[in-house]
Design a protein that fits this description.
about 400 residues, alpha/beta, Rossmann fold, 2 domains, 7-stranded mixed sheet, 4-stranded parallel sheet, elongated
């Protein structure tokens, strides 16, 4: 057993810009106080392995990775079952703190591991750094999760290029962006790129989501622009639309979806933009409207990009916050910062509902900001019906507001 006090860092779930920034900052803060810093590859899998893949993190490594995208530690979605924790890893390395980087499942598993170790008379602290590019964790002051703004920035770069292609070639593109539960990425990218149409699950608060309604919303924008002699555009659709569709709707697509342990369709296996684009094309053909459209998928391209300045600052604050909370004797908590930059410990119980679930933070569709953004989209309303009759038998079926209130 070593006399050197040690911390272990693990990363769970999927990548997000800024992971390396957190690892770097945490490592530097603890190295400065004489701690040894170990990174474990493959997330929790490393803690349950007799031969864990360990990465020694010294100042040189921490300094080099700070602004890089991706993660210097290999990530994993491994969830322990009946496996036993490798207690020898903690004892031989004199581990005092487990730092986990990931979503709420990662935080919950960290708590369970430290509780098990305590039963084995091994006492360590654990502090969790929440991350997701979906921005759907309910943090204080609606503060963003790290990685979201960098992923959005990369999406805007691709979105602006796509929009320029649409204008240059006089075509339409159907784009899809990540976001299982919430439409933050799709909303942020679409508004930043001035796309004429975006469809996110939060829009359907007064009606059920169906494939037909999504397609009609896109065509509403196409016809509105056609009336105004604009023959190009990009329609953004959040992948969260799929997660809110009943299985009866998914069956209409004709794709044999695989499902995860929670019953969600595994959307990483299919191109959402391709599916929606084909549905839009089929409907346009049925209407006798000759307009070309192409699919663009914003998926894994966003997760490992280099973090922008906003996230470099946020991740630095969170990394320093880990050390601050540890020095204060805090454990079993998430590190967070309020709008004044003050470090706040959050506990899962602070975020969970009465059923023990953390409800996702959704786009506030009724905020003034959201309402103004949706007003700026291009879609048909009652004033367009006469002109729209040149293309549609019943323009009311493609009225944006009516689609979103259909019973």
């Amino acid at each position: 057993m070593t006399d050197n006090k040690t911390i272990i860092i693990i990363c769970g779930g999927g990548p997000a810009p800024g992971i390396n920034s957190v690892i770097s900052t945490v490592a530097k803060a603890f190295l400065k106080d004489g701690y040894r810093v170990l990174g474990l590859h493959e997330g929790f899998k490393g803690l349950f392995s007799e031969q864990p893949k360990i990465k020694e993190i010294d100042f040189d490594l921490a300094d080099r990775i700070f602004s890089r995208g991706g993660s210097t530690l290999i990530m994993s979605r491994f969830k322990p079952g009946n496996e036993k924790v490798n207690t020898k890893l903690f004892l031989e390395n004199n581990v005092k703190l487990l730092v986990s980087i990931g979503g709420d499942d990662t935080a919950s598993t960290s708590n369970k591991i430290t509780a098990y170790l305590e039963e084995e008379q091994i006492f360590i602290s654990n502090i969790h750094v929440p991350k997701t590019i979906d921005n759907d964790l309910p943090l204080p002051d609606r503060n963003p999760t790290f990685g979201f703004h960098s992923a959005k920035d990369e999406g805007v770069r691709i979105g602006n290029t796509t929009y320029e292609d649409a204008r240059t070639s006089q075509n339409w593109f159907v784009m899809s962006a990540m976001g299982r539960s919430a439409g933050h990425l799709a909303f942020g990218i679409a508004t930043s790129c001035h796309f004429p149409m975006m469809v996110i699950p939060e829009m359907f608060e007064n009606t059920n989501i169906t494939l037909d309604k999504v397609v009609r919303l896109v065509i509403s924008s196409i016809i509105k622009r056609k009336i105004e002699n604009i023959h190009y555009g990009v329609a953004m659709i959040s992948e969260g639309i799929f997660h809110n569709l009943p299985k009866s709707e998914l069956d209409k697509i004709g794709v044999n979806f695989t499902y995860d342990n929670h019953g969600h369709p595994e959307l990483g296996n299919v191109s959402k933009s391709h599916i929606f684009n084909m549905l839009v094309q089929d409907k346009l053909k049925e209407l006798g409207i000759d307009i070309k459209s192409r699919p663009v998928e914003l998926g894994y391209e966003l997760r490992c990009c280099r973090p922008i300045g906003f996230d470099l600052t946020l991740c630095t604050l969170l990394g320093i916050g880990v050390k601050k909370l540890f020095d204060e004797g805090k454990s079993g908590c998430l590190v967070s910062a309020n709008s004044r930059g003050e470090i706040i410990p959050l506990y899962l119980a602070d975020l969970q509902d009465e059923n023990g679930k953390i409800p996702p933070r959704l786009v506030d569709i009724n905020s003034e900001f959201s309402k103004l953004c949706f007003q700026n989209l291009h879609y048909l309303d009652e004033n367009d019906y006469e002109a729209a009759k040149n293309y549609l038998k019943d323009p009311a079926e493609y009225d944006f507001k009516k689609i979103l209130t259909e019973k």
